[in-house]
Design brief:
single chain; 281 residues; mainly beta; six-stranded antiparallel sheet; five-stranded mixed sheet; 3 helices; 12% helix; globular
């Protein structure tokens, strides 16, 4: 069953406190981007770049030597996911400990014989800042390219906790802070051990930070379609109910965070407003 929300209203003070504490952590939610181009191997050594956003990427063309990537994270435990790919070279991505020891995280292999670029993804718990070291193959060409993307999840949910319905506080928080909010139905679900892919048909897209939903006109009616992703361990099935889909964009995919029924979420909104809560200030 889709993550159907059972409505249990909590005290207003708890909801407001939750929103204040969590929305204050969104100040760095912009995307950081760096581009490095090494057009000559003379005088090259190890470079360093700093990221101060919740997600970002670096594109390194003509890689040579090494690259330190310093990701400044929240001052609390969080989940850091990195996605690495390369063209024309192989590379190693390692984490650097406080005593300057390297721990290999990802090996990026060079695509062979016009293969599609293989993206390697790894997620792990982190605290405060994380320092990565990217080391390209010594035989990399000037036209070679290495891309490292990262994403920070402030409130990760693991195991069975990843499949539970969102609480009232989480619903109100995600409604305001999500990259996308849309109302519609689940038309089909494709499941693998790693991921569920939900094909959705949407009546209304309230918010999307990038255009990931496709607009269609059928019988003079406009609707949107798209794909949402959820953890593979969460059992899901299609339903005739209408849902409010909320989530974030992670490595160009729409990850589903909460999906209350439209009726339940409307009732929660009305109840919160009656108690004086101001949503999404």
């Amino acid at each position: 069953m889709i993550w159907r929300k059972l409505l249990i209203l909590n005290p207003l003070s708890g909801i407001i406190l939750y929103l204040i504490l969590n929305l204050s952590n969104c100040a760095k939610d912009s995307l950081c981007r760096h581009k490095i181009w090494d057009d000559s191997k003379e005088g090259k050594g190890v470079k360093k770049i700093d990221f101060d956003c919740m997600n970002g990427d670096v594109e390194w063309t003509g890689p040579y030597g090494g690259l330190f990537v310093n990701i400044k994270g929240p001052v609390k435990e969080h989940e850091l996911c990195i996605q690495a790919s390369s063209i024309g070279t192989s590379a190693l991505v390692s984490s650097v400990s406080e005593d300057n020891q390297l721990k290999r995280l990802v090996t990026i292999l060079e695509p062979k014989n016009h293969q599609h670029v293989q993206k390697r993804t790894l997620c792990f718990p982190a605290y405060k800042d994380t320092l990565l070291f990217v080391e390209p193959d010594v035989g990399a060409f000037i036209s070679s390219k290495i891309t490292i993307e990262y994403d920070i999840e402030q409130n990760p949910r693991y195991g069975e906790d990843a499949c539970r319905p969102c609480t009232d506080e989480e619903l109100l928080y995600n409604f305001c802070s999500s990259d996308f909010v849309a109302v519609g139905k689940v038309e089909d679900i494709k499941s693998t051990p790693a991921v569920n892919i939900l094909h959705v048909s949407l009546d209304h897209v309230k918010k999307q930070s990038a255009k990931y939903f496709t607009k269609e006109t059928v019988n003079l009616e406009t609707r949107f379609t798209g794909k949402l992703y959820s953890p593979g361990q969460c059992s899901m099935s299609t339903s005739r109910s209408k849902f409010v889909f909320m989530g974030k964009i992670k490595f160009s995919r729409l990850e589903l965070k909460c999906a209350p029924t439209y009726e339940d979420f409307f009732e929660l909104q009305q109840s919160s407003k009656l108690k004086g809560a101001t949503l999404c200030t």
